[in-house]
Design a protein that fits this description.
The complex is a heterodimer of chains A (166) and B (139). Chain A has 166 residues and is mostly helical. Chain A has six helices and four strands. In chain A, the strands form two sheets. Chain A has a two-stranded antiparallel sheet. Chain A has a two-stranded antiparallel sheet with strand order 3-4. By secondary structure, chain B is of the alpha+beta class. Chain B has a domain at 3-84. In chain B, the strands form two sheets. Chain B has a three-stranded antiparallel beta sheet. Chain B has a two-stranded antiparallel ribbon with strand order 4-5. The chains are: A mainly alpha (166), B alpha+beta (139).
Chain lengths: 166, 139
């Protein structure tokens, strides 16, 4: 069975987009005109308006990538990645205010359920109260994908087994 | 003011020929715009986005957009007002909201890895054990 790992594989480019964790790769800086366009675009949006889809995805995937291997993600660390990026900050606040993320403990906690969607793409798993990933706690109830299949696919793509935090 | 007009007023400048235009340095700028909340990535792929600028490309690889060319990009822009009631808006904490988010992630379009510029151009941090995936991926 081919388990789609597009989301997991996407993490590097998403991290690149927020300016962190691009091992060995120098990414090009945008020109002043491009930066001004993004800034002006953000200026057209009200604080009560929904965040853009790219930023929402980026938040979820960034948290997933940072918590990979069970690593705790602090609010401070996450905040640094979002500095100067109003679109990401808005998406983050939106996810916090709607209870999908929380950071009350000082760690960024993902409260969604880990699962596969109907196309068997892996959706970011939750982080626990300490911000540690429990992405591998997938059970056979998740669209029929077994934990073993998940771990095997994860290891194939990332080179090591995910932490099983239970 | 129309958001596209507002951005035009903020960004466009006089060019060598005396006309006002927005000039992007190269294709990396366009990728940056795509990944930074300007484009509606749930509706348009990166390829579609880049193709939309074909008529603005110059021999040196830069892109020079006149006012009509800029305004023609309106359909690619993520408009929070028009989508406020649609799936982009994450609702209250509920199973439905989690499903919304999953759908949003699953339907986001493809971006080539490693080619999205960062703000600084310099990797801020490196993840231990990070294994780069060279393929084009879906976000």
């Amino acid at each position: 069975m081919g388990i789609g790992l597009e989301l997991l594989q996407a993490a590097p480019q998403i991290i690149a987009a927020v300016g962190s964790a691009v091992t060995g790769t120098q990414v090009k800086s945008p020109s002043p005109a491009a930066k001004a366009t993004v800034a002006a675009n953000e200026g057209t949006k009200g604080s009560d308006q929904p965040a853009d889809p790219a930023s929402i995805s980026l938040i979820g995937q960034t948290l997933f990538e940072k918590s990979r291997g069970g690593k705790a993600v602090t609010k401070e660390e996450f905040g640094k990645d979002m500095e100067g990026k109003p679109g990401l900050q808005k998406a983050y606040k939106q996810l916090i205010s709607n209870g999908i993320l929380s950071d009350d403990t000082g760690f960024v906690v993902w409260k969604g359920n880990p699962s596969y969607d109907t196309d068997e793409r892996i959706i970011p798993g939750p982080t626990n109260a300490e911000g540690k990933s429990s992405s591998a706690t997938v059970t056979s109830t998740h669209h029929g994908a077994s934990p073993d299949a998940y771990v095997a696919a994860y290891e194939k793509d990332f080179g090591y087994k995910p932490n099983l935090l239970g | 003011m129309n958001p596209m007009e507002y951005i035009w007023e903020k960004v466009a400048g006089a060019t060598g020929d005396g006309e006002k235009a927005i000039v992007y340095r190269d294709v990396h700028d366009l990728k940056y715009l795509y990944a930074s909340g300007f484009a509606d990535t749930s509706k348009f792929t990166l390829d579609e986005w880049l193709r939309a600028f074909a008529d603005s490309k110059r021999e040196d690889g830069s892109y020079r957009l006149t006012h009509p060319q800029w305004m023609a990009k309106k359909k690619y822009r993520f408009d929070p007002l028009s989508t406020k009631e649609e799936s982009h808006s994450i609702q209250n904490n509920s199973e439905a909201s989690f499903k919304q988010l999953k759908d949003l992630i699953a339907t986001a379009k493809t971006v080539p890895s490693s080619e999205i510029p960062s703000e600084t151009g310099i990797p801020v941090a490196q993840t231990p054990g990070f294994k780069r995936q060279p393929r084009t991926m879906r976000i």
